[in-house]
């Protein structure tokens, strides 16, 4: 193998990295200031038109990202399947659950959803508000931001528990004025073999699900939700880092979306204070996660047999 052929992959990677970095940085500085400027006007007067304009600007930013994925990372093969009973559209109101392995998961969600579903928001930490541009954009775009308190803090001041819930309630209720997709990573953290072993998870491919966030969203949004959508993401070559993805080092990504039926008993329950309801809700989520674990195993087997 000649020296030039050995250097080619590295040269291509450097070129890809520089292209992505330049375009994303330029796009962020182009789209970011208008979102922040319009967001400031909401301090004085709430406006649906402002919200719609900010979503359009954000979708324009995502369009640039998706263009990079399609044209600068063409070696990434996408295998996307959507169940026949799941009818998605840009005017819908969706709750979404997803397994969580990498920061790339959110980019995968945005890549799929840009032309199929309303802008995806997700529960995020209040501390992110202090990150320039990003944190303020999350707040302006209506991402539910949670001030998570430790068990020790809540034990000393029980009101903190309900203050968090009330903040989440206000954020979720604001979404009802528009189409939305609200994403919840039920595992609460990214999957790693170490975390899986530490938890003694009963699932082969997943961490234990935390049902509280989903229960809260269903309690607030209730029957205004058009569908509960479960997204499953598979990286056949292992969960990638964010840099690996944007350097074109992820050869294949498989995605499945299915509709989850919401039982009638779910609506109107009190997850925080009704222990019987909480146990029943957690059992329902555990069963959904067992189905998801089997789905992941089947997807992996199908990918392996096709290679």
3D architecture notes:
The chain has 307 residues and is an alpha/beta fold. It folds into two domains: 1-74; 77-118 and 179-306, no CATH class. Helices cover 51% and strands 13% of the residues. The protein has ten helices and eight strands. The strands form two sheets. It has a six-stranded mixed beta sheet, sandwiched between helices. Strands 4-5 form a two-stranded parallel ribbon. Strand 4, helix 4 and strand 5 (145-146) form a beta-alpha-beta unit. InterPro entries: Plipid/glycerol_acylTrfase (IPR002123). Residues 94-236 form the Phospholipid/glycerol acyltransferase domain. It is an enzyme of class 2 (transferase).
Q: What's the overall average pLDDT, rounded?
A: 88
Total number of domains: 2
Helix/sheet category: alpha/beta
Q: How do the helices and strands follow one another from N- to C-terminus?
A: HHEEHEEHEHHEHHEHEH
Total number of strands = 8
Q: Could you estimate the helical fraction of the residues in percent?
A: 40-55%
Strand content: 5-15%
Radius of gyration (CA) equals 21 Å
Summarize the biggest pleated sheet. Answer: 6 strands, mixed
**Biggest sheet, strands in spatial order?**
1-8-7-2-6-3
Q: For the record, give the distance between the C-alpha atoms at the N and C termini, rounded to a whole number.
A: 27 Å
Give the overall form: globular
The count of helical stretches stands at 10
Which residues form runs of ≥5 with pLDDT under 50?
1-8
């Amino acid at each position: 193998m000649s020296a030039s052929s050995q250097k080619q992959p590295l040269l291509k990677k450097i070129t890809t990295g520089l292209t992505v970095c330049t375009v994303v940085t330029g796009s962020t500085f182009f789209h970011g200031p208008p979102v922040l400027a319009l967001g400031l006007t909401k301090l004085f007067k709430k406006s649906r038109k402002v919200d719609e304009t900010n979503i359009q600007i954000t979708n324009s930013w995502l369009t640039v990202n998706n263009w990079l994925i399609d044209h600068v990372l063409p070696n990434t093969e996408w295998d996307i399947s959507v169940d026949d009973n799941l009818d998605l559209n840009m005017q819908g109101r969706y709750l979404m659950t997803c397994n969580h392995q990498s920061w790339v998961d959110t980019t995968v969600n945005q890549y799929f959803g840009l032309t199929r579903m309303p802008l995806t928001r997700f529960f995020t930490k209040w501390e992110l508000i202090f990150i320039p541009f990003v944190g303020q954009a999350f707040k302006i775009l209506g991402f539910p931001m949670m001030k998570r308190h430790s068990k020790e803090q809540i034990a000393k001041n029980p009101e903190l528990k309900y203050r968090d819930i009330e903040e989440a309630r206000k954020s979720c209720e604001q979404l009802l004025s528009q189409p939305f997709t609200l994403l919840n990573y039920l595992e609460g953290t990214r999957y790693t073999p170490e975390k899986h072993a530490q938890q003694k998870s009963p699932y082969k491919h997943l961490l234990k699900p935390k049902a509280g966030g989903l229960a809260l969203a269903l309690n607030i949004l209730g029957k205004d939700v058009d569908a509960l959508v479960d997204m499953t993401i598979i990286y056949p070559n292992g969960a990638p880092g964010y840099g690996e993805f944007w350097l074109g080092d992820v050869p294949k990504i498989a995605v499945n979306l299915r509709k989850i039926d919401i039982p009638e008993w779910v609506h109107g329950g009190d997850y925080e204070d009704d222990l019987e309801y909480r146990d029943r809700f957690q059992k329902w989520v555990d069963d959904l996660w067992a189905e998801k674990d089997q789905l992941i195993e089947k997807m992996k087997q199908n990918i392996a047999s096709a290679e």
